[in-house]
Automatic annotation (TrEMBL):
CDD domains: Porin3_VDAC (cd07306)
Compartments where located: Membrane
One of the record's GO cellular component terms: pore complex
Organism expressing this protein natively: Vitis rotundifolia
Assigned protein family: Belongs to the eukaryotic mitochondrial porin (TC 1.B.8.1) family.
Coiled coil: none
Protein name: Mitochondrial outer membrane protein porin 6
Main location: membrane
Domain of life: Eukaryota
Keyword Cell inner membrane: no
Keyword Ion transport: yes
Lineage: Eukaryota, Viridiplantae, Streptophyta, Embryophyta, Tracheophyta
């Protein structure tokens, strides 16, 4: 991407990742095996509410082409073929699911020093069309996205946003939910890239209900192998996780969340183990 703007979907992503990424309140196990020839296999299993789910994902890379194949416990097969640089600065991806014959989709991404454009069209007689674009630079980007349901000739979404990024902080403002929601986020890192602490906040205002909400969080690097994250919402929910890299690229993550408004008042606990032999 160089010095060009990030795609519209990346506006505010640094804050969203700190507040949500790696939090897991179920039991999850991931095994990643990769060969030098470009073949990678990932097996994932998780238990939620006494029910076990799982999938096996195979990723194969050859030149500028990547083939991603996933099989889950419900016998659904998802396939995605991605080709890079068919045209300069362009990535094309075709995906579909079996047995859902209406799930086919074609995605095209174009990255330019001053623009990032993503488009998506469903491969069926009445496709869903989506288009997003961002203009600017690596530091400042302004963009929007629209979605059109051709069956009903109606918009499924239209959002807009602006983001400002620096290595140690990022600010984003998004107008979402067809103009009904305003979301502002901020993230700031202290003493990067040597560890230290990162803090983030996300504020949301809904114009139709005049409701305001917020979430604040932090991430603290205890040592090169250990990270602790916290999250607090205005509704009183408090969450915390501790992630430890106990061997190269193998992680164990323990998460917990307390909701004072829950009926039983119990704390939700989760354990995630990611193993790369």
């Amino acid at each position: 991407m160089g010095n060009g703007p990030a795609p519209f979907s990346d506006i505010g992503k640094r804050t969203r990742d700190l507040l949500n990424k790696d939090y897991n309140f179920d039991h999850k196990f991931t095994l990643l095996m990769q060969s030098p020839g470009g073949m990678g296999v990932t097996a994932t299993g998780w238990k939620k509410d006494q029910i076990f789910f799982g999938d096996v994902n195979t990723l194969y890379k050859s030149g500028n082409t990547t083939v991603d194949l996933k099989l889950d416990t419900h016998s659904n097969v998802s396939t995605k073929v991605t080709a890079h640089d068919i045209l300069p600065c362009t990535k094309v991806a075709c995906s579909f699911k079996i047995p859902d014959h209406k799930s086919g989709k074609l995605d095209v991404q174009y990255l330019h020093p001053h623009a990032a454009i993503d488009s998506s069209i469903g491969l069926n007689p009445t496709p869903l069309l989506e288009l997003s674009a961002a203009i600017g630079s690596k530091d400042l980007s302004l963009g929007g996205e629209v979605g059109l349901n051709t069956a009903s000739a109606s918009f499924t979404k239209y959002n807009a946003g602006i983001g400002f990024n620096k290595p140690d902080f990022s600010v984003a403002v998004l107008l979402m939910d067809k103009g009904e929601t305003l979301k502002a986020s901020y993230i700031h890192s202290v003493n990067p890239p040597y560890g230290g602490t990162t803090v983030a906040a996300e504020l949301t205002h809904k114009f139709n209900t005049y409701e305001n909400s917020f979430t604040i969080g932090s991430a603290h690097v205890v040592d090169p192998y250990t990270m602790v994250k916290t999250r607090l919402s205005n509704n009183g929910k408090f969450a915390m996780l501790c992630q430890r890299e106990w061997r190269p690229k193998s992680l164990i993550t323990v998460s917990g969340e307390y909701d004072p408004k829950a009926n039983n008042g119990a704390t939700k606990l989760g354990l995630a183990l990611a193993l790369k032999p």
